[in-house]
Amino acid sequence: MKIVVVGIGYVGLSNAVVLAQHHEVVAVDLDERRVAQVNRRESPIVDSELEAYLREQSLRLTATGDLAVALDGAEVVVVATPTDYDPAEDFFDTSSVESVIASVVEHALDATIVVKSTVPVGFVERMRSVHPSAHVLFSPEFLREGRALYDNLHPSRIVVGDTGERGRMFADLMLEGALDSSVPVLLTGPTEAEAIKLFANTYLALRVAYFNELDTFAVTHGLDAAQIIEGVGLDPRIGTHYNNPSFGYGGYCLPKDTKQLLANYRDVPQNLIAAVVSANTTRKDFIAADILRRAPRVVGIHRLIMKTGSDNFRASSIQGVMKRLKAKGVEIVLYEPSLEDDTFFGSPVVRDLDEFKRRADVIVANRQSDELSDVADKVYTRDIHGRD
């Protein structure tokens, strides 16, 4: 079977690799650098399993920048293009997905179009009305940045928003590529699948916000947050997972998905979803104020990335803290090896770690790092467990 995957990001590349174990896969991207890297069997993103599979496994995978050519003979097209949240429109910008669907209708009408990009609730039904001859379905992705391939090889569940033959066919393709033998499969309506994605990510954001607000309470009252979290988590209904305080939820998915779900609630009574969105702003306000209480002259920002083993810092919570500190006139220096530029939002990027440590009065780190152990007295973090 020939499969086309459009978008060489975390979602697209991990799906392409999983499917290329058994099928001919063509990955498509506008970024010529990413296309060339995939064709050289190099991963354009930091992900240990992706890097190993591209280097070591026999995959029927090629990459190109020409979508029209790639679509020739395609039976399945997986759409994994970016859908950034547009605050002006209060919805995801789905133009890239819509453009791909239109191209498939023009060049490969009988292909099954599987939307993997996160979209507003009701998007697929709208696309089906716009393109009644197309075969569009939605299959949400549940992966972690830096572990994208692992999470597709060992999926927690496979959800496909189509209850017919094409939905079952795509679920079988994902099962075929997985390493686990028993994976829950759920075939739903397309709108229900879209809601599953947004509600799942909003619950994760809710859990992050809950433990962050617990931590805020503990700091404000001089209490040991670790003890409180441990006692709360020992209730088996709550558990000891996903409970490590941070500067706020960030990354590519949670901030935009919570806002999108809130937008979808526009005519539906709610309190909790709005609170989850606003809690993230409140947490960053508190963290910045807590740092300012130390009266720093120069604040060092240690890493912009969201989590260990990732190179992505889109919408990372530490950026929000940094911008609040800059707004108060605090001098900022950054240590972020993945940055190519010498400045970031007007602040210098220091590539020598020892120099970075010398220049900063307070070093702000969303997550602890062994490389800061010699200046532990300077480090400000709310990382209790030393893990993501």
UniProtKB/TrEMBL annotation:
Gene Ontology molecular function: NAD binding; UDP-glucose 6-dehydrogenase activity
Domain UDP-glucose/GDP-mannose dehydrogenase C-terminal: 300-387
Cell cycle found in the keyword field: no
Pfam family, any one: UDPG_MGDP_dh_N
InterPro entries according to UniProt: 6-PGluconate_DH-like_C_sf, 6PGD_dom2, NAD(P)-bd_dom_sf, UDP-Glc/GDP-Man, UDP-Glc/GDP-Man_DH_C, UDP-Glc/GDP-Man_DH_C_sf, UDP-Glc/GDP-Man_DH_dimer, UDP-Glc/GDP-Man_DH_N
Protein name: UDP-glucose 6-dehydrogenase
UniProt-listed PANTHER family: UDP-GLUCOSE 6-DEHYDROGENASE, UDP-GLUCOSE 6-DEHYDROGENASE TUAD
EC number: 1.1.1.22
Any one biological process term the GO annotation gives: UDP-glucuronate biosynthetic process
SMART domains registered for this protein in UniProt: UDPG_MGDP_dh_C (SM00984)
Pathway: Nucleotide-sugar biosynthesis; UDP-alpha-D-glucuronate biosynthesis; UDP-alpha-D-glucuronate from UDP-alpha-D-glucose: step 1/1
Residues annotated for substrate binding in this entry: F142, L143, R144, E145, K197, Y242, N243, N244, P245, S246, G250, M306, K307, D388
Record-listed NAD(+) binding positions: D29, R34, T83, T118, E145, K256, R314
Top-level enzyme category: oxidoreductase
Active site: C253
Keyword annotations: NAD, Oxidoreductase
Catalytic activity: UDP-alpha-D-glucose + 2 NAD(+) + H2O = UDP-alpha-D-glucuronate + 2 NADH + 3 H(+)
Organism superkingdom: Bacteria
